[in-house]
Amino acid sequence: MFEKISVGAASRAKPAAVVVAVFKDKKLDRATGAVDGQIGRAINRGEFSGDPGSVVETFPEKGPGRVIVVGLGERKDFKPAVLRSVAAAVGRRLAGTKDTPVQIAIHHALKSENGGKSALTEAGRAFGEGLGLIGWNYSRFRGSAAKNNNKPGKLSVVSDDSALTAGLRAGLALAESTNIARDLSQTPPNIATTAYIASQARALARQTGMTCRVIQGAELEKERLEGLLNVGKASEHGPCLIRLEYRPSGRRGGSKGRGRSGGAKAAKPVVLVGKTMVYDSGGLSLKINNGMVGMKRDKDGGCAVFGAMHAIATQIKPDVPVVALLSCAENAISDEAYRPDDVLTFRNGVTVEVTNTDAEGRLVLADALCWACDRENPACIIDLATLTGGVVVALGATFAGLWCDDDKLRARLERAMEASGERWWRLPHDSEYRELMRSPIADILNSAPVRQAHPIQGAAFLSYFVKEGIPWAHIDIAGVHATESDKGPFVKGPTGWGVRLLAQMLAEW
Ligand code: BES
Ligand code: ZN
Ligand code: ZN
C-alpha cells in the first residue's frame, strides 16, 4: 500500500491530516478536543462505535485538512497490542486519502489512561508496527495486464511527543524487517531458489556489516550435512546451509551503560535456526490433492530468521553475538530423489530410517542443530519451522507450537511474546514421544507409523540432535506463518511471524 513510510518530529509545516484517538466511553480529553472543535459532535455520530479501529473524520476550517478520529475500544481492555489493529485501520484509510504528512496525536488519549513515557514508547511501537505491517505491498509480479496501476504512495508520519516518536520509529523499523521476511516468503519458487536465498543473505550481510558463509556442494559432504544432501538431492537447485553472523561492536555495551562491552566479544552466541524449504512437493511421498499449493512458504522459518537478523543488525544491535543458520533445500522428485526406506547417518552419529520423504523439514533441521551444537558453542538455540500440518489442526492460526524445557529461555520468549503479540503455546517433550520415534533397523524414524501427535513427534525427532544441557526452543509455525484472510495489521498472505518475537527477545537480552 505504501512504498515507504518515514517518521519524524512534527515541524511547523501544517500536516495534511491529524490522527487522534478516543475510547469507547467517548469521554473526550481536553487536548484531543482542542485539535478541532467538531470532534465532540463527530464521535457521537452513528457511524462511530468507538470500537478498536472504528473511524470518523472531521474537516476543520483552520489547521489540518482532515482529522481522523479512531476508536480504542473499552478502557479496561486496553493494551498496546490493540494499537496494531487500530493503526492498521488508520493505514487503510490513509492509503485511500493519500494525505501526507500525517500527525499522530493519539498520545493525548493514552496519557489520560496510562501516563508514563515508557508506556507511550511501547504504544508508539505497536502503532508503528501496525502501520508498517498494513503498508506491506508486494507488486513485483504485477505485469502488463494488472488491474490497477496505482503506484503505492509515500507516507510521512510526524509527532510532537518524543516518547511516541521514538516508539513509532522503532515499530516502523520492526515492520520493515518483518516485511522483508514477507517479501521473501511471497517470492515464487521459480525465482526464490536455494541460490537466490543465499544471494539475498550475502546481500543482507554486505548491507549491514554481518558475515555470511554458504556451505554447499562438496563442502556439504565434507561437513556430513546428511539431511540437506539427501532432501535436496532431486532438485537441480542444490541445497545449502547459510550462516549469517552478527557480532556486537565493543562500544555498544558501554553506550548502554551496562559496562558489558568487554565481555561481549567472548560471549556465546544466540543461534537462530530456520527451516528454509524453497519448495516442498513431499518428494517421493508426494503431496496429494491440493496439499502442494502454497508450499513455496515452506521456507518461512528461514524467512523469519532472515528478517530477524535484519532487525538485529540494523536496529536492535544487542550486546550478544547472534548466528543464523538457514537450512535451505528443495524437496523435489527425480530418479535421484531420496526414498522412503533409505537410512541416513547424521553428523552426530544418529541413524535415521526414512519412512516418509514429506517429513523432510526435521532432516534438514537436524543438520543445523548438530552444527550449532558442535561448531557454535551456543548460549541457546531457537529453531523456527513450518514443520507439521498437525500443529495447524491443534492450534490454528492463533498460537505457534513451542517446545522448550529450559525455564530461563522460555521466560525470555514469554516476555517477547507479550511485547510482540506473536503468541505461542507450550507443548510437551517426553521420553514416551522419543520412544515413539524408534526404528526397527536404525536409531530413529523420521515419521512414526502411528497417526498420533505429529507436531510432538517432530519435536521429539529434533531432540535427538541437540546436546544435553544446551537451552533449546523449537517453534512450529505452520499455522501462523501466513493468513488466509485479512486479519488485524495483516493482509492475506505471509505474516513474517517470528521476526518481531526474535527481535524483541534480543532487544531485552
Ligand atoms: N511443510 C510441511 C508442513 C506444513 C503443512 C507446513 C501445512 C505448512 C502448512 C511438512 O514438511 C510436512 O509435510 N509435514 C508432514 C509430516 C508428516 C509426514 C509426519 C505433515 O504435517 O503432514
Ligand atoms: Zn513435507
Ligand atoms: Zn516441509
Task: Enumerate the strands of the largest sheet in spatial order, edge to edge or round the barrel.
Answer: 7-8-10-9-13-17-14-15
Rg, Å, rounded: 24 Å
Tell me the overall shape. Answer: elongated
- Cα(first) to Cα(last) distance is 34 Å
Helix proportion range: 25-40%
Largest sheet: 8 strands, mixed
Spans of at least 5 consecutive residues with low confidence: 252-262
Main structural class: alpha/beta
- What is the averaged pLDDT score? 95
- Quaternary structure: single chain
The overall strand count is 19
Helix count equals: 18
Q: Report the portion of residues in β strands.
A: 15-25%
Which hetero ligands occur in this complex?
Answer: ligand BES, zinc ion
How is this structure best described in words?
The chain is an alpha/beta fold and 509 residues long. It is 37% helix and 19% strand. It contains 18 helices and 19 strands. The chain has helices at residues 30-35, 39-42, 82-97, 107-114, 117-134, 162-186, 194-208, 218-222, 226-231, 250-255, 261-264, 300-316, 361-375, 390-395, 407-420, 431-436, 454-463, 499-507, and strands at residues 2-9, 17-22, 55-58, 66-71, 102-104, 153-159, 211-216, 240-246, 270-280, 322-331, 343-345, 351-353, 380-385, 400-403, 424-426, 444-445, 472-476, 482-483, 493-494. Strands 7-8-10-9-13-17-14-15 form an 8-stranded mixed sheet, with helices on both faces. It has a 6-stranded mixed sheet with strand order 1-6-5-2-4-3. It has a 3-stranded mixed sheet with strand order 11-12-16. The longest helix has 25 residues, at 162-186. The chain is elongated and about 80 Å long. The two termini are 34 Å apart. The relative contact order is 0.11. It binds ligand BES and zinc ion (2 copies). Ligand BES binds at residues 280, 298, 356, 358-361, 386, 388-390, 392, 447, 454, 478.
